[in-house]
Amino acid sequence: MEIIITPDPASASKEAARFLAALLRKKPHAVLGLATGGTPLPLYRELIRMHRQEGLDFSRCTTFNLDEYVGLGAEHPASYRRFMQEHLFASLNIPPDHIRIPDGLAADIPAHCAAYEQAIVEAGGIDAQILGIGGDGHIGFNEPTSSLGSRTRLKTLTVRTREDNARFFASPGEVPHHVITMGIGTILDARSLVLLAFGAAKAEAVAAMVEGPITAMVPASALQMHPVVKVLLDEPAASKLKRRGYYRDVFAHKPEWQRW
Ligand code: PGA
To answer: Which of 49, 131, 240, 246 has the most CB atoms less than 10 A away?
Structure first.
């Protein structure tokens, strides 16, 4: 894992955007894995700025989102389809038929999940997957004890995640119990992973992910098995890492040819 400790979320998001822009310039038909939540918002704002001011072109790329709430349709204000439309897709030039998000209203969820996996394969696999991390160490909606080999499927949210996400709903009771999420195995199949984490509330999960054992109790710890992972943190999110000094040293001395 490459751990990059930045002064603030804006700097981390610019690093992530630079990485994605370099990928898109090299491979215009790249497949991007996208995430929702508060964390990727500054990244999405930076991608929109690059599109508008620097002509970064998304017309040939394809996107797959990590997850969606079961029972919420595209028009529901808290659906991830709606979130993505408002915060990213409305401002970029991705063809609508290149955008894939699990369907929270799918009648046959196992069949829908299998088709989602197949669509990723048919698109050529995900080149770069954006990730946040839950305070409990989840990635996507793979809650603690999720199989490290899991594929896209139905999951039940923990009480903590439902509480964390209640801010996006009119009342806490409206947060669905069920979601469709890419599995940990699905995420590990992406060619590169970019995980963003900001704020002290993420510090413990970040430390467990980077420096703890690989365990289903911390789903993000599975990223230790992936060869190309960038973890972009602000100072508070990095505050519980024991080897902070080493990570800073690595970044400060990174050879020019490894930069993007
Ligand atoms: P957040 O969620 O970005 O809203 O903190 C992250 C996550 O739950 O994966």
So the answer is: 131
